[in-house]
Amino acid sequence: MIANASLHAWFAIFGVAALAVMGEVLTAGAMRRIGDLDDIRAVSGLPGAIKAVLSSPMFVIGALAMALNFFMMLYALSLADVSLVAPATASLTYIGNAIAAKLFLRENVDRRRWLAAVFVVIGVALLAH
After folding, report:
1. Positive or negative CA dihedral for 61, 63, 68, 73?
2. Alpha-carbon gap, residue 87 to 93, rounded angstroms
3. If pLDDT is split at 50, 70 and 90, which confidence band does 122 have?
4. Which of these, 69, 59, 63, lies nearest to 90 by C-alpha position?
5. Helix/strand/coil (H/E/C) assignment for every residue in the chain
6. C-alpha closest to that of 6 among 88, 119, 69, 116
7. Which of 2, 41, 54, 70 stands the most exposed, by the fewest C-beta atoms within 10 Å?
């Protein structure tokens, strides 16, 4: 029974990280497409800037993923201690963001960031035991 509870907790932790990465990458991609909000606000005012953001399906889906992330975090915290959930989700989110930034946003993720991600993986492995 304990192994099953632990498995559920780790699924929830991975769910939190996946939703966080999805939300962050989608909102970052949307904001790149939308452009500088100061420029939009200068032309269309604050309502125009708000409309530009809220009319982006990519932004809306990213925001929904972040909202689901919050509730998944609550679920994870109901299954495991915060001393495990918080660092594990933060670490996995960091790794996921580096990979997603490289693959989807075409960001230059340098060697130092990959090395940091390796150390994060080691840290998550230590947390798991």
Report:
1. positive
2. 10
3. confident
4. 69
5. CHHHHHHHHHHHHHHHHHHHHHHHHHHHHHHHHHCCHHHHHHHHHHHHHHHHHHCCHHHHHHHHHHHHHHHHHHHHHHHCCHHHHHHHHHHHHHHHHHHHHHHCCCCCCCHHHHHHHHHHHHHHHHHHC
6. 88
7. 2
pTM listed for this prediction: 0.87
Q: Enumerate the domain spans of the chain.
A: 2-128
Q: Residue 27 and residue 31: Cα distance in Å, rounded?
A: 6
Cα–Cα distance measured from residue 34 to residue 5, given in angstroms and rounded to the nearest whole number: 43
Cβ burial 18-52 (10 Å sphere, 16+ → b, else e): bbbbbbbbbbbbbbeebeeeeebeeeeeeeebeeb
pLDDT at 83: 86
The string of pLDDT tens digits covering residues 100-117 is: 999 999 999 899 988 988
